[in-house]
Amino acid sequence: MAHGLGGTKDSGLEPFARAFAAAGLEVLLFDYRGFGGSGGEPRQVVSLDGQLEDYEAALQAAADLPGVDPSRLVLWGISLAGGHVLRAAADRDDIAAVVSVVPMVDGLAAALHATASHTPGELLRSTARGIRGRLVSRSGRAPVMMPVVARPGEVGALTLPGALEDYLSIAGPTWRNEIAAEVTLELGTRKPAAAAARVDAPLLVQIADFDQSAPPQAAAKAAFKGRAEVRHYPCDHFDLFPGKPWHDAARDHAVAFLVRHLASTKVTADA
């Protein structure tokens, strides 16, 4: 299990993990390189390929734990990581189930989706910051940073009304509200939805129907390609996190899905 864009494992994920552990599943919850409790330099820099490698490393680490059946691994990801898990599970025969929560699965669709809730000026400022960040990183200098979440009208990766307050409500002690700006350029080039058709394991996709951050239509298309079980929630992107109206339902649906497909898994937890 891992978080989305700029997230850390102590920021709203532990309640999901503890629910899975209580249901008899073994849980390995991790931070990406350069974030939270994980090592790596530079800090707060998102590499989509690097995060995918981190998922693959976590799968190997989980498979090596005592008592774990290495042929029955599960992937869980939320937001940006909801796309990572599709890519990580594709073309593997050791994955027993996948849970993709409010997933970001199509960068171009997300960019078009953003035009409905952001002014052209806001989008231009974020893109300009990303371009400057890319140029600076290629020169070998320290990354250009931007907030993960900010208020509407400010520069940030997520600037929708309420996004700052929503993220702060789940933020753990290791979370930092900054991220390397060049990720804004990388996001638009990725389409993990294409990997959904190559996921052979049972797949649960949990969609927030009024999601202003991750396009729900793109998530639904990916779910169809992956022959997924789909759960819809009449809410926005952050409303499936702990303390929000639809968290309990999303958590319980995921638990039921995993128990149904992993009924023989034994109990331990490392959250």
How are the elements arranged and paired?
Layout: H1 14-22, H2 48-63, E1 73-78, H3 80-89, E2 95-101, H4 107-114, H5 120-138, E3 145-146, H6 163-170, E4 179-180, H7 183-187, E5 203-208, H8 216-225, E6 229-233, H9 247-261
Parallel strand pairs: 1-2, 2-5, 5-6
Antiparallel strand pairs: 3-4
GO molecular function: carboxylic ester hydrolase activity
Family: Belongs to the AB hydrolase superfamily. FUS2 hydrolase family.
Protein name: Alpha/beta hydrolase
How would you summarize this macromolecular structure in one to three sentences?
By secondary structure, the protein is α/β, with parallel strands linked by helices.
Q: Name the CATH superfamily classification.
A: Alpha/Beta hydrolase fold, catalytic domain
Structural class label = alpha/beta
Gap from first CA to last CA: 9 Å
**What is the molecular shape?**
globular
Number of structural units classed as domains:
1
| Spatial strand order of the main sheet | 1-2-5-6
Mean pLDDT: 90
The total strand number stands at: 6
Estimated share of beta-strand residues: 5-15%
CATH architecture verdict: 3-Layer(aba) Sandwich
CATH level 1 class label: Alpha Beta
**Largest sheet composition:** 4 strands, parallel
* H-E order: HHEHEHHEHEHEHEH
CATH-defined topology:
Rossmann fold
Output the radius of gyration. Answer: 18 Å
Unreliable spans are: 264-271
What fraction, in percent, of the residue positions are helical?
25-40%
Number of helices: 9
Q: What this model shows, in words?
A:
The structure is a single chain. This protein is of the alpha/beta class. It has a single domain, classed as Alpha/Beta hydrolase fold, catalytic domain (Rossmann fold). Helix content is 37%, strand content 10%. It has helices at 14-22, 48-63, 80-89, 107-114, 120-138, 163-170, 183-187, 216-225, 247-261, and strands at residues 73-78, 95-101, 145-146, 179-180, 203-208, 229-233. A 4-stranded parallel β-sheet has the order 1-2-5-6, with helices on both faces. A two-stranded antiparallel ribbon has the order 3-4. Helix 1 packs parallel to helix 9 and helix 2 packs across helix 3. It is globular, with a radius of gyration of 18 Å. Residues 264-271 have low confidence and may be disordered. InterPro entries: AB_hydrolase_1, AB_hydrolase_fold, FrsA_esterase. Belongs to the AB hydrolase superfamily. FUS2 hydrolase family. Residues 2-241 form the AB hydrolase-1 domain.
